[in-house]
Amino acid sequence: MRCLEYLLLQGAEVVSMSYMAVGRDLGQTRGLFRNAFEHLSLGGVLAVGGAGNYGPQSRRALPKGKQIGLPKDIPCVLAVSGVDRGRKLLPFSSEGPCFWEGVRFFSDHPQADPLSKPDLCAFPTGYPVWNVTGSHRIRSGWEEISRAPEASLVMGPAGNSFSGPHAAGVAALVLSANPTINPWEVGQIISETARDLGPPGRDEKFGAGLIDAWAAVRAARERN
Known about the structure:
By secondary structure, this protein is an alpha/beta fold. The chain contains five helices and seven strands, in the order H-E-H-E-E-E-E-E-E-H-H-H. The chain folds into two domains: 2-124 and 159-222, Rossmann fold (3-Layer(aba) Sandwich); 126-158, no CATH class. The chain has helices at residues 2-9, 29-42, 160-177, 183-192, 213-222; strands spanning 14-17, 46-50, 78-82, 120-122, 129-132, 143-148, 151-155. Strands 1-2-3-4 form a four-stranded parallel beta sheet, sandwiched between helices. Strands 5-7-6 form a three-stranded antiparallel beta sheet, with no helix packed on it. Helix 3 (160-177) crosses helix 4 (183-192), helix 3 (160-177) packs parallel to helix 5 and helix 4 (183-192) crosses helix 5.
């Protein structure tokens, strides 16, 4: 909660988050966090994050409806899944939907009317990453590009912790193109300009589709 307050006090407009609470019963605490993130949105901050790596083929697979956890299961938080360069969902990527039943004041998405998540998808791999010496071993399939005294630059790590920042970067571009729009309008613009994947329309694997930075910025410039 202090982190959210800090964001507001510092005048932040976008926050990228890589943490998620899964595999545990949070009870009514979910409502507390949802209320906090809705206040964050009203305060002018768009929260974005990876949808998680708990998909049906993940080594940490979770049941349907539990793969996307707090805070990415909150309606005003953009949850971003991951696709490969062929536009196919990666096996580890978490899928929706999410449920909000039994949570006081927030029982708006029961089993019969689930919350559609994820919201978008992006590329969760293909970026150079600094690997601090001793923190992670170089895994099979990783390529070491260069080495420094205390770290090595590698290609190969994958996960939706990369998808979230990718979408957050697009959100920042949208705001730079049109600083007058609010957080929910930013999310709306990115969703409306995304490239639809999978079945026509929004779905529980790709959300509204693959983010398109140029289309989103162009739409933001055209919005009054």
